[in-house]
Amino acid sequence: MTVTPAAASAASTSSTDPSASMKQLSSNFSTFLTLLTTQLKNQDPTAPMDSNQFTQQLVMYSQVEQQIDSNTNLKTLIAQGTSNASAVTTGYLGKKVSITNGNASLTAGAANWTYNLATATANTQLTISDANGKNVYSGTGLMTSGNHAFAWDGKDNNGNQLPDGTYKLAVTATDSNNNPITSSVASAGTVTQIDMTGSTPKLIVGNMEISLSDIAAVAN
Q1: What's the pLDDT band for 138 if we cut at 50, 70, 90?
Q2: Together in a domain, 33 and 75
Q3: Burial class for 199, CB neighbours closer than 10 Å (0-12, 13-18, 19+)
Q4: Domain containing 42: what range?
Q5: Residue 202 belongs to domain with CATH number
Q6: Domain count, the chain
Q7: How many CB atoms neighbour CB 198 within 10 A?
Q8: Do residue 103 and residue 30 come from a single domain?
Q9: How does pLDDT run across 51-97, given as a tens digit for each residue?
Q10: Average pLDDT over residues 20-25
């Protein structure tokens, strides 16, 4: 007597619908007990059944039941985490945030960044790319150490006005020996909307979506 495939089937569906899987497991377990009882009643007294097999079956049903319960609890925790994240994210509405992933929103032909140089440089190169990763602008930056503001009018190197959207600034700095110098890029904007359609909430700043992990500071 082997009903292991039925138990395995319940386990395989537990990740998608724990309630349905538990019902299937209960039905299979009832069938298993009926078969076991019938077989015990009709066994040869002089050659009784080996109890190891149905004991293993009982253990498997118990393990599958625990798996279904674990999946149900995990889904509950995920749902609670998503709800808490949504509640926290709404607190950013109307707040000015500092963004550290290099992105900024080009709005009405204007985008602004701040970049920091750890030490003075011999060469500072600024490169802007669009949302598809295509380089659309390059130029030289300041060479003194510290923070520097960079305002971009949204025009490429040929003078063409580019559409509003999300653009990324990258800074490459080297010293007189062509050794790299540490740099960082930040931008700022006001959170106007929260996008909760995905698995994690996103903040809308200008024309771009950002994650909470990309925020370095929040101001009223």
Answers
A1: very high
A2: yes
A3: exposed
A4: 4-91
A5: 2.60.40.4070
A6: 2
A7: 8
A8: no
A9: 666 566 666 656 666 666 666 655 555 455 555 555 667 788 888 99
A10: 62
Percent of the chain topping pLDDT 90: 46
- Which residue type sits at 156? D
Going through the chain in order, the beta strands assigned E by DSSP cover 96-99, 103-106, 111-117, 123-129, 135-140, 146-152, 165-174, 183-195, 202-205, 208-210, 215-219
Instruction: For residue 215, name the pLDDT band (cuts at 50, 70, 90).
Output: confident
Q: How far is the C-alpha of 187 from the C-alpha of 82, rounded, in Å?
A: 27
Let me know whether 149 and 206 are in one domain.
Answer: yes
Residue 90's identity, in one-letter code, is: T
Environment class of residue 200 by beta-carbon count within 10 Å: exposed (0-12), middle (13-18) or buried (19+)?
middle
How far, in Å, are 14, 16, 72, 78 from residue 19 at the CA level?
8, 9, 8, 17
- Which tokens is 55 given? 């004991």
